[in-house]
Each structure stands twice: as structure tokens, then as C-alpha cells.
Design brief:
about 130 residues; 4 strands
Amino acid sequence: MSLTFDIAQTIVSNAVKAGAGQGVNVAVVVVDRAGRVVASGRSEAAGFVNLTVAERKAVASASFGAPTLAVLEMVKGDQILLSSVMGETSLSILPGGMPITLDGQPVGAVGIAGAHYSQDHAIAETVVGRLSQD
């Protein structure tokens, strides 16, 4: 199974709704395995810069094949590695990026920004987890 536009749009919609359910405004970007945007969106009150941050989280998650929280945990104790990753402006390893797998295969990632990064991460986990239930 591949990451279709319809699947990506469903992820965006579910994430915005999940944010609203928590009283936060979020931006959401879904990328394919190569880090190219498939779909994006934001709540009306989410700041436009959050779309950029969400895309950077999604690209980082797709590139590393891991949640951005896990990437942050991996690099934070190694100053050289941390500086290297943080110096790449196309990436953000703040929590809120989550890989997407379909039929056991990696197909892309989602990035969420706009709330506290812990909420961004939880929303990403929720919407990606819902894919296996649908």
C-alpha cells in the first residue's frame, strides 16, 4: 500500500480535529518517504510558521525512519551529532514528527506543530495509530 493523497488528507484532518479536542491549534504536514509534501493543513488560528516547523518535523521523521522524539533522545547526549543535526535547516527534531507505515512498510511521515511539543507528539501518535484501526 502507498501513501495516497486521500490517506494523507485523512491524517491532516484527524490531527487538526485532535488538536481542537485538546484546545490547541496545530499545523500538519504529511510527507512521502523522500520527504516531499503530500498534504498539509492547519487550524485557522494556527500560525503560518507552524506549517514550516511541521514540515521540518515530518522530513526529519521520514529521513531517520523514527519519531523525532526518538531522534532527539539519540543525539542529545552527543554534542557533535546534535550540532550536526540541528545545523540542517530542513529538519526539526522537536517532538511531533512520526513515521507512517502501511502494511508494515514505511511510506512517509507526519509532522505536527503549534502546541507544546509534547502535545504535538501525542497527536502524531494518535493519528498514526488510527491508521492501523481504519
